[in-house]
Request: fold
Amino acid sequence: MTDSITVAVAYHSGYGHTARQARAAADGARSVPGVRAQLHDVTRLTDELWEALGGAEAIVFGSPTYMGSQSAAFQAFAEASAKVWADMGWRDKIAAGFTNSAGVNGDKLNTLTSMALLAAQHGMTWVTLGLPPGWLYSADGREDDLNRLGGFLGAMAQSPSDAGPESAPSPADLRTAEHLGRRVAQTALRFACGRRALDGAAAR
Reply:
């Protein structure tokens, strides 16, 4: 049995679509017994933000993809985390990422790759989506499949440029983000239990 752990979802959302992804990821994380989920808008770089992220066992990064890359606001957060990096404050935490763009492709992989590299520089352990591709991967695929956009590194979503956040991303994309949050929470719990077992063995 383990004490509860925290999954922090650190995200920026320009128009509200990525915020819906963030909420879905948090819902997935908190669906796992023993896990708390927190949402953090990284446009506000406060001491409280850094303290919350420092106290979490896992951080899920989220950003829209603009012009083939993460948003300027998320990049500002990533660069500001250099102070944490200097002390290796996030080393051995669990990490994952999600992104949204107007295009079906939209070069979303570049954003997820940037997030994974950010996590690697911090010494974090990256959790992949862990799903096979859906939708157009097979002739009988459906648009409501999990991982309908066929990503592997993280959760991808697509929101038409003329659709508001009340109607996009699609339910399938939100369920994919929820799956990622749940997977991160389960992984973080396993790591926490493993660390406690090792600490107990070392103390004997």
In short: The chain has a mean pLDDT of 95.
